[in-house]
Design brief:
Low-confidence stretches of chain B: none
Number of strands of chain B: 7
Oligomer: heterodimer
Strand order of the largest sheet of chain A: 1-2
Mean pLDDT of chain A: 65
Distance between the termini of chain A: 85 Å
Strand order of the largest sheet of chain B: 2-1-3-6-7
Largest interface: A-B, 47 and 52 residues
Low-confidence stretches of chain A: 1-39, 87-92
Largest sheet of chain A: 2 strands, antiparallel
Largest sheet of chain B: 5 strands, parallel
Strand content of chain A: 5-15%
Order of helices and strands of chain B: EHEHEEEHEEHHH
Structural class of chain B: alpha/beta
Mean pLDDT of chain B: 90
Number of helices of chain B: 6
Strand content of chain B: 15-25%
Structural class of chain A: alpha+beta
Number of helices of chain A: 2
Chain lengths: 92, 205
């Protein structure tokens, strides 16, 4: 006959249980946010694309372009002269 | 462990079909023009990742949410409602209600075609301030810009009408910009569009 034993969540609980001790109270608690089960978070400092002519800081989206690089699209817009900061009436 | 939210990330919860695309692009343009970073379920094309898990992660990481529930309408045979947007709105409200201090700082803007239409399918949010855009990109920009400016308190951010004018000009030039790269505007991915808008807003030609 096979008897199933409960699996302890942590090794300390098993050892402490045998001795009638709660091991979790004998060790210093760590409260760091990252751990082996923590998901990698992409929250961090936002990447800045630049500033508009009126001073608003424009951020880059976290999604990456697939058909061109950031450098290539900037060059395209510079070449075509169609950026927002171009105030000429020709673009309207 | 819940992730912290980014005070500049805006979760965009809306339809992604071609009919809605002008409004979606208008929202993305406004978010970037207002100094925020747009995020949505389209930002990663990874079939191995569960779609709902991906959306949950994005919601967790965003301080702000723009939820357009205008497409909650019956469709198909038998006619059934599309309910993804209300579901994600519920996830956002849930994170705000049950999350840690950071999650509780979440802020949401709810948009619909008509101001009181939502009461017929999610009456539980009655009392919330729902903004109507009438499926008009210009009106949607005004609503989003006003809300984002209130959140950021950045006086440099222009008003919604000015951003709507800028978006109209941008749209008229998008074809030429895409053509220079051998693309049609409808081929742009979300990542392409966001990068293009960021460059358009900041490049000094």
């Amino acid at each position: 006959m096979v008897t199933m034993l409960p699996i302890p969540a942590r090794a300390g609980e098993l050892e402490g249980g045998k001795l009638g001790l709660n091991m979790s109270t004998m060790t210093k608690k760590h409260t760091t946010k990252s751990g082996p089960l923590a998901k990698p978070s992409r929250v961090g400092n936002p990447k800045i694309a630049g500033k508009t002519s009126d001073g608003v800081v424009v951020l880059r989206a976290k999604a990456k372009p697939t058909h061109f690089t950031a450098k290539q699209i900037r060059e395209t817009i510079q070449r075509t002269g169609l950026a927002l900061s171009d105030k000429s009436t020709a673009r309207r | 462990m819940p992730a912290s939210t980014s005070a500049r990330d805006v979760f965009i919860n809306c339809p992604f079909d071609s009919t809605y695309k002008p409004v979606f692009w208008a929202i993305v343009f406004t978010v970037l023009r207002s100094g925020f970073s747009p995020r949505c379920a389209l930002e990663e094309d990874d079939s191995s990742e569960n779609r709902l898990a991906k959306i949950q992660t994005i919601i967790e990481e965003c301080r702000y949410g723009i939820h357009d529930i205008s497409r909650t309408e019956v469709d198909g045979d038998p006619p059934l409602p599309r309910f993804n947007m209300p579901l994600e709105l519920g996830l956002f409200f849930g994170a705000k209600r049950y999350g840690n201090k950071d999650q509780r700082s979440k802020r949401a803007l709810v948009l619909d075609r008509e101001q009181y239409r939502y009461q017929r399918f999610i009456s539980d949010i009655a009392g919330a301030d729902i903004h109507a855009h009438g499926a008009d990109p210009g009106k949607c920009i005004e609503q989003v810009a006003t809300w984002l400016r209130t959140q950021s308190r950045d006086r440099k951010i222009p008003g919604g009408r000015k951003i709507a004018e800028e978006f109209e000009v941008f749209q008229s030039q998008l074809g030429a910009i895409c053509a220079d790269r051998g693309l049609e505007p409808d081929e742009l991915t979300f990542g392409d569009f966001a990068e293009l808008v960021a460059a358009y807003l900041t490049v000094d030609p």
